[in-house]
TrEMBL record:
Main location: membrane
Organism classification: Bacteria, Pseudomonadati, Pseudomonadota, Gammaproteobacteria, Oceanospirillales
Secreted is among the record's keywords: no
InterPro entries: AAA+_ATPase, ABC_transporter-like_ATP-bd, ABC_transporter-like_CS, ABC_transpr_PhnC, MetN_ABC_transporter-like, P-loop_NTPase
Chloroplast listed as a keyword: no
Keywords tagged on the record: ATP-binding, Cell membrane, Membrane, Nucleotide-binding, Translocase, Transport
Name of the protein in its database record: Phosphonate transport system ATP-binding protein
Source organism of this protein record: Halomonas cupida
């Protein structure tokens, strides 16, 4: 059995008096593609941010996050990540986080900064090999011909593909994507998900992606982790996330989310699960 690449144990997070993560624990093995789903405000983005140490858990309640065998945080204290560890985790944001006035090419090359010497990084001096590699990364997301264009002249879908190329340039082994398709039209959303899935499949990258649309999660991910009100509601094969469980997951959510979560095939089963019940399925 492979050693987990992501380990989360007893993670708790409160903002003021509001507990937004409640005793979260799960493991992800190398090469998995996992959908992180749940109603708006259930804690998906907060959880993802904990995985890279952008947010730290509560001190009083312990909690541990480890990535690729190294602790990111423990007992509410961040561990200083090594440079190489930081480079091995790529983060994709809903709003792309590109430098709009720079070229597409430079934005992709930025993915390399973490592995360069400080001097070279400060001067932004990239080698011919690095430029060739950046072109390859752009070709993989279908944007090679836009290399010299300013990033802010691209469509949202194209910008997200540049962000993925930047993660490829970073050579990240784990890709964490926080609602990467939330602000995209359906076609761009499909392109972005297909690229992520291809990278996962062809390069054996571990991908954890937060999604609002359950049908998208079903199409691209084998496993789902669902949060409800900050608690782990489901963790297992996405095929076991039945319509009844989904109804219970989204039962207090807005109408739009319910529609987004509705299955496209059979009619939902009228199964009701108590609001805070956990449906935890052993993950193999
Ligand atoms: N820095 C913060 N300070 C205070 N509250 C916060 C902070 N970050 C998140 N929260 C709160 O934590 C809860 C979970 O937020 P989070 O963004 O993780 O949810 P989410 O499931 O990703 O929601 P969405 O799907 O709408 O993005 C929300 O109630 C949010 O308002």
């Amino acid at each position: 059995m492979s050693i987990p690449t992501i380990i989360v144990e007893q993670l708790n997070k409160s903002f003021g008096h509001r507990q937004v993560l409640d005793d979260i624990g799960f493991k992800v093995t190398p090469g998995e593609m996992v959908a992180l789903i749940g109603p708006s405000g259930s804690g998906k983005s907060t959880l993802l941010r904990h995985l890279v140490g952008l947010t730290c858990g509560n001190r009083s309640q312990g909690g541990r996050v480890s990535i690729m065998g190294r602790e990111v945080q423990m007992g509410g204290r961040l561990r200083r990540a090594s440079r190489s560890q930081r480079c091995r985790t790529g983060y994709i944001f809903q709003q792309f986080n590109l430098v709009g006035r720079l070229s597409v090419m430079t934005n992709v090359l930025i993915g390399r900064l973490g592995s360069m010497s400080r001097g070279r990084a400060l001067l932004g001096r990239f080698s011919a090999d690095e430029r060739a590699r950046a072109r390859e990364c752009l070709a993989r997301v279908g944007l090679e011909e836009l290399a010299d264009q300013r990033a802010n002249t691209l469509s949202g879908g194209q910008q997200q593909r540049v962000a993925i190329a930047r993660v490829l340039m970073q050579d990240a082994e784990i890709i964490l994507a926080d609602e990467p398709i939330a602000s995209l039209d359906p076609r761009s959303a499909r392109e972005v998900m297909e690229i992520l899935e291809r990278i996962h499949r062809e390069d054996s990258r571990t991908v954890v992606v937060t999604l609002h649309q359950v049908e998208v999660a079903r199409r691209y991910c084998r496993r789902a982790i669902a949060l409800k009100e900050g608690r782990l509601y489901f963790d297992g094969p996405i095929a076991e996330l039945t319509d009844g469980r989904l109804q219970a997951l989204y039962e207090n959510a807005g109408l739009d989310e319910l529609r987004a979560s509705a299955s496209t095939d059979s009619a939902p089963e009228p199964v009701r699960v108590p609001a805070m019940a956990r449906v935890q399925v052993a993950h193999t």
